[in-house]
Specification:
The protein is an alpha/beta fold. The protein is 25% helix and 30% strand. It folds into two domains: 191 residues, Roll (Nuclear Transport Factor 2, Chain: A), CATH 3.10.450; 150 residues, Nuclear Transport Factor 2, Chain: A, CATH 3.10.450.
Amino acid sequence: MKKIAIGVTLALSVVGCSKKKPQENKEPPAPVEPTPAGTGSAGGSAVAVAEKPLVGKDLADKYMKCSNAIMSDIEAFKKDCVAPEYKAHEMDEGDYSGFDALAGMFASMKKAFPDFKNSPQLVLINGRNILAVNLSQGTNSGPLAMPGMPEMPASNKKVGTLFFHRLLIDDTNKAIEEWAYEDPTTFMGQIGALPPKAPAARPAIEKGWDGAPIVVVAADDDKEKKNLEVVKNLDDAFNTHKPDAMLPLMSDDFVESDQADAADHTGKKEAEAGLKKFMAAFPDAKVTADNRFAAGDYVVELGTFEGTNTGDMGPIKKTGKKVTMHYAEISKLKDGKVTNLWRFRNGMAMAMQLGLMQMPGGAGAGSAAAGSAAGSAAPKK
C-alpha cells in the first residue's frame, strides 16, 4: 500500500496533519446542523430536499443527483446539496469555506472545459460518510485561470483524471465538510503545462470503471472487520520496514494504481521492488492512519506519510529533506488479500518539499532535477 512515488510534480502548499488514533468503521459525532451530500458535475436537474436523514443506497442516490446538479443547475446544488457552513480541505493545498468559493472553482473549470463532466465510479456509504472516486473529463478549449498563476490559453487537449473525496453529511442530507485528494501534476501534464523535461504524466482516462457507478453500503459485519485488520497489518509491516510481511497480504495479480504515477503496477514482484527502492530512499518512512472505513470488499484509509530522504532515488540524488504529506488509499480485498489499491495524493507537494520543484510560476531550478528522474521510487501495498 505505501507507494508514495517521488517522480516529478508541481504543487501548491502543504497542510499540516494531526496525528490521531484511526477510527475504524466509526462515524464521527453528528454535527449540530447540516453535513454533506456531494460534489461533482455535469448534466441533471434540481435535487429534492429530503425531510429526514437518508441512509445507505438512498444517500448514495442523493450524492449522484448532486454530482449532476453542480454543473447543470448551480442554484439547485446550492439549495439542496451544500450546508451554509460547508468547509473544504484540498489536501496539501489549502482550505476554503462556503458555497461561493466552491461555485467559483467550478465556474472556472466550466470556462476552461465547456464539456467538463464528473462521473462517480465508486460510492461507498459508511454512516454519515460518503467516500467516492470520481472520473473528471473534458477538453481544454477555453482559457484556464489557476490561483497564483497567469491565465493559460486553451491547449485543446483532453483530460481524464480520477479524484477521491470524503464527504461528511448532516441530518438535512447536505455536505458540511469535504476532504479532497487529487494530483495536480497529472492534470497539468495532460493539458501540456508541465516543464519540457518532466517525465510523462498518466494519460487521460477515456473509459470509466466496469459497472460504474459501483455503490456499496457498509454492513459492519465480520468480513468488513477482517478487511480492516488486513489493511492495518499492511501498515504495521510497512512501518517496521518488512516487505516480506506485506507481500503475503497481496493477491498474486495485485494491481496498484497511484494516480500520481504515469502507469499502474501489477504483481508482487513489482510491489517488492518498489518497496525496497522506496525504503532505501526513506529509511525512516512511516504512515499514520487517521481514519479507516470499510464497506463490503473495500477499505478506505486516510492518513499521513512522513519520511526523510537520506538515500538516492534512482537518478535523483538524496536531498536530505523531510516530507510530510496526506494520502487516501482504497483497497479492494478478496479472501483476506488486497487485489487492488488506488492511491490519491498530491505529488506536486511532495516534489516541492523535496526541493525538486518550485511553486508554479516561479523559476524552474527544481524542475530540471525533477525532470531528470527516469522513474519513481515507491512503496507498494
